[in-house]
Amino acid sequence: MALERVIGDLDRTIERLLEEQPARLVGEEIGEITRIGNGIVELRGLPGVGAQELVQFSDGSLGIALSLEPARVGVVLLEASGGLAAGGEVRRTGRVVDVPVGPGLLGRVVDGAGRPLDGRGRVETAERWAIEREAPPIMARAPVTRPLHTGVKVVDALIPIGRGQRQLILGDRQTGKTALALGTIINQSADDLVCIYCAIGQRGSSVARVIETLRSSHAMGHCVVVVGAGEDPPGLQYITPYAATTIGEFFLAEGRDVLVVYDDLTRHANAYRELSLLLRRAPGREAYPGDIFYIHSRLLERSTHLRTEHGGGSLTALPVVETQAENLSAYIPTNLISITDGQVYLSPELFQKGMLPAIDVGRSVSRVGGKAQLPAYRKVSGALRLAYSQFEELETFARFGTRLDAQTRATIERGQRVREVFKQGENERLSPSEQVVVLSAVSRGLFDAVPIDAVRGVEVRLLNATRDPLAELSRRIDSGNGLSDSDLETIMEAARSALPDPGPRADANP
Length: 510
Fold this sequence. Notes:
Layout: H1 2-20, H2 22-25, E1 30-36, E2 40-44, E3 53-57, E4 62-68, E5 73-77, E6 89-96, E7 98-101, E8 109-111, E9 127-130, H3 153-158, E10 168-171, H4 177-186, E11 193-200, H5 204-216, E12 223-228, H6 234-253, E13 257-263, H7 265-278, H8 292-300, E14 304-305, E15 314-322, H9 331-339, E16 342-346, H10 348-352, E17 365-366, H11 375-381, H12 384-398, H13 406-422, H14 432-443, H15 455-466, H16 471-478, H17 485-498
Parallel strand pairs: 8-12, 10-15, 10-16, 11-12, 11-13, 13-15
Antiparallel strand pairs: 1-2, 1-6, 2-5, 3-4, 3-6, 4-5, 7-9, 14-15, 16-17
Helix pairs in contact: 6-7, 8-9, 11-14, 12-13, 13-14, 15-17
């Protein structure tokens, strides 16, 4: 009996102590800071810490355990390290990095940890999801067949993007990459499509301009802006695109269509390289760590179009990459070209010539292609890409002063007018039916007699004059119906009646 009483008293004492200090009695792990670098901290202790686990410092700041070695743990900071010092304590949290998800994020500006940056108070959401999630399995994926319209003629006609696709936007700085991505977001205002703009490593003033553009275009209502600014610690920049993807995956799980713009992954790679070098990881090509390909592939593999039984939603990725001196064969651009389903290349040479958007059709490609186009486009733009590429080759050849036959001159003159039609203002977006009308007219020679400097004005006049007569046909085109030969002839008749009498060609060669 005495032994039973002792055991009972001991049990009660243990229960009371567990209520008072449960963490320490079950073996709370406490580590010690040994070194502090620019955005990283090295620790000793924490023998049970897991990869990607959050740890908490004595000042309340958080970090991610990224490098696990027997003698030390490398931690990436998510906040400024001003209050930390060697010898300070650090504890495990037992959880990984997560972000709030839900409809409450629409119209908000947050950082990579889900903290609000727009001064509108706490983000009201019911759930938090881990930023690192498995990509959907192959058997859950459906073919990419539905178009995502950008409103830009040269993209929608020649380099179509489908919902669930990963289409890379690349080019030198100041060639219009962000403008193209923002135009695509703004063009989705009429659709039930959630857009997420993810800014990585940019100046705060640049991000503010993007947010103002979205607000002035009334696009913020269906957008979430996730920011890892250049002034933020590199660890926060590193997690930002994963957080943005997780926010999009919440809407994907509800069966909705999502567009995520990563602007840009060059700066993301630079932030990861900085962290890896500070953590003393072995550098590889261009000083990037050996897993630089993996960090982007596991991000972009989460983009998909799901089968109907899995919700039927889609997540489309538009990663942006900056090249140096048109070097497409650099390390990061080639990595991402191999991961994605095509690329839109913006040429600085075309930009300087005023050919906006400065898209180089010859270097751009969509591996999904016409499968993600409305049927009406296939009737109009099937041979347009090949004809336009041939025109560019002939135009280059003609600069050498070679005497050209009449057919070659006619091909060059028509190509010059096609190029004028492809020019488009930054805030100018056309519906699919409007694009089909214009491209039908120019590809069948109705613009051949129009002076080059008058093509843009004639295009506007054509659209205004055909809007009412072709209203029913336009509705059918926009809803996804095909274009028959009689429909095409109807477009041509309306275009001929809208265009002025051509008369003699103003710029014909003698």
